[in-house]
Amino acid sequence: MTAAATELDIADITAQERAERLDAAGSAWNERLAASATNGRLKFSASGTARGSVSSVITAGKHSFAVDEPTPLAGDDAAPNPVEYALGALISCQIVVYRLYAHNLGLTIDELDVTAEGDLDVQGLFGADETVRPGFSAVRVSVNVSGPDDAEDYRKLQETVDAHCPVFDIFTNPTPIDVTVTKVD
Hints:
With about 180 residues, the chain is of the alpha+beta class. It is about 40% helix and about 20% strand. Strands 1-2-3 form a 3-stranded antiparallel β-sheet, with no helix packed on it. A two-stranded antiparallel sheet has the order 4-5. Strand 2 and strand 3 form a beta hairpin.
């Protein structure tokens, strides 16, 4: 177990325990969806409060975490910045979906490590060049998987994962966003 996993109190489980959890979750969702497709429509939410120079404290469900910027972007570098969390969301979603579909397809993953890096030009953020988008211009994901199955099986797994990963979808397809600003006195 890594230091990060220990620090976050994430259990190290066996492949059998993982398979049992995936089977139980799959069975439960299949039952819910068979009863009504509307059971598959979930809402997730988060809220945030500004702190310090440009940092924030985010609450999502029962979890809270800090978001900040590095000092060159007016922050205190006390926590990852928003785009680092976005890359982290992509990585963690990929890991979940790799585990899910490897299990469903009967593939074995002994080890799985995912990294992501994105290119961002701050000219868009600061309005210095309106032709430069403020978000990532490119993202590269590297998946290192080990296991006894053929390389071609893992390549097909990657195609399946990318077709079903919610955060991959958020990164690759436009998502409508409705923003409401309310002045509070």
